[in-house]
């Protein structure tokens, strides 16, 4: 029997952020994950966008999230020597006088001063896209290359014998008053971070989840740009002349795999935005673990006190995970 303090189920950005926080506090853990099967994090663009929505408003609790995600991802860059996290401005296409006026009036607001800029044109996109009326620039936005970061952490934790590459079987969990046993693991606590696959979790699947599938095409552009473009969809550079393009929102779906419907949605938008020819290199899909309230769920089970959940990161896992992992360990567990 192996003794540990915490078992984590799932190594998406939620489970990973939690493990990093436990390690910081010197708390021993083991993670189970079947090689990121159906992981939303692995399909994501990893954009951290301070200004969202049709009304260009600041993202929920952004000022509180900012110091925590900055610290977490900067430390990961430093420890790995890689650039998983970087600043990446977003250029938002403004297609009408109305959009332009809304942007300009938001920019006047002192709360938005450090985040918003305005450009009547941008040389960066000439000959590449159908130019809009003007561009709103979102400063203070970032990119986390989750599809590179998670395999890096997977490799590290596997070599430290902290990560077990297998699917967790709920039937084999034995719950005691002061802990749990799972196969040959004995722990004081178990935290479920399975993303949208929480629907199979008999202890927590009654919670108000509202998962939504999304798909992206990865395209190759010969002469591209080095900022993120937000037009009808996002077109975001991910290195090696490749661009992440997406995504759609589908509440009805049969599985987490790439679909014709998702492909058609992204491609038809790309064909309207881009004037430069492009090649499709890949097609990614995932199911965002959203909740009805659009807020994360970090909680202890009402009856079985050794059981916890960290989920519901929805569309914003990159910015929410480090902050809520800190609160989970500091306040809930
Ligand atoms: C197309 C798309 C674009 C997105 N773009 C962005 C973006 O730009 N910025 C942003 O912040 N967010 C974005 N998101 C949202 C982001 O992906 C999620 O918020 C975040 O990844 C959720 O992380 P998670 O760890 O909760 O879930 P997941 O990433 O889904 O991870 C869950 C993990 O649990 C494991 N697991 C599940 N069941 C079990 C089990 N029984 N046993 C063991 N392991 C299990 C899975 O293998 C998986 O690795 C996007 C999502 C999609 C689909």
Order of helices and strands: EHEEEEHEEHEEEHEEEEEEEEHEEEH
- Overall shape: it is elongated
Query: Which residue ranges are poorly predicted, with pLDDT under 50 across at least 5 consecutive positions?
Result: none
CATH architecture of one domain: 3-Layer(bba) Sandwich
CATH topology of one domain: FAD/NAD(P)-binding domain
CATH homologous superfamily heading of one domain? FAD/NAD(P)-binding domain
Bound molecules: flavin-adenine dinucleotide
SSE inventory with pairings:
Layout: E1 2-9, H1 13-24, E2 29-32, E3 47-48, E4 51-52, E5 57-58, H2 62-80, E6 85-87, E7 90-94, H3 97-108, E8 116-119, E9 134-138, E10 142-144, H4 146-159, E11 163-164, E12 173-176, E13 179-182, E14 185-192, E15 212-220, E16 228-230, E17 234-239, E18 242-246, H5 260-273, E19 279-288, E20 297-300, E21 307-311, H6 317-332
Parallel strand pairs: 1-2, 1-14, 2-11, 7-16, 14-21
Antiparallel strand pairs: 3-10, 4-5, 6-10, 7-9, 8-9, 12-13, 13-14, 15-18, 15-19, 16-17, 17-18, 20-21
The chain binds flavin-adenine dinucleotide.
Flavin-adenine dinucleotide binds at residues 9-15, 32-34, 36-41, 43-47, 167-168, 193-197, 214-216, 246-247, 286, 288-289, 311, 313-319.
């Amino acid at each position: 029997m192996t003794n540990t303090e915490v078992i984590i189920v799932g190594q998406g950005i939620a489970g990973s952020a939690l493990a990093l926080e436990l390690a910081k506090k010197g708390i021993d853990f083991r993670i189970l994950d079947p090689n990121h099967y159906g992981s939303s994090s692995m399909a994501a663009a990893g954009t951290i966008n301070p200004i969202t929505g049709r009304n260009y408003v600041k993202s929920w609790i952004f000022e509180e999230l900012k110091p925590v995600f900055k610290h977490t991802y900067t430390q990961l860059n430093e420890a790995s020597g890689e650039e998983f996290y970087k600043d990446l401005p977003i250029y938002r296409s403004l297609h009408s006088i109305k959009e332009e006026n809304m942007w300009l009036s938001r920019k006047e607001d002192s709360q938005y001063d450090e985040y918003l800029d305005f450009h009547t044109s941008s040389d960066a996109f000439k000959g590449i896209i159908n130019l809009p009326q003007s561009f709103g620039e979102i400063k203070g936005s970032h990119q986390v290359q989750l599809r590179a970061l998670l395999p890096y952490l997977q490799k590290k934790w596997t070599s430290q014998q902290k990560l077990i590459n297998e699917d967790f079987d709920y039937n084999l969990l034995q719950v005691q008053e002061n802990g749990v046993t799972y196969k040959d693991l004995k722990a004081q606590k178990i935290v479920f971070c399975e993303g949208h696959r929480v629907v199979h979790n008999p202890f927590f699947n009654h919670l108000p989840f509202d998962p939504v599938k999304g798909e992206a095409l990865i395209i190759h552009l010969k002469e591209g740009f080095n900022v993120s473009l937000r037009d009808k969809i996002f077109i975001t550079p991910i290195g090696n002349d490749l661009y992440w393009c997406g995504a759609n929102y589908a509440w009805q779906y049969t599985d987490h795999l790439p679909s014709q419907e998702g492909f058609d949605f992204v491609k038809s938008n790309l064909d309207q935005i881009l004037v430069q020819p492009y090649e499709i290199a890949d097609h990614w899909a995932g199911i965002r673990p959203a909740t009805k309230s659009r807020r994360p769920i970090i909680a202890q089970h009402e009856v079985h006190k050794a059981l916890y959940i960290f989920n519901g990161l929805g569309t914003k896992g990159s910015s929410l995970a480090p902050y809520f992992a800190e609160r989970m360990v500091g306040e809930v567990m």
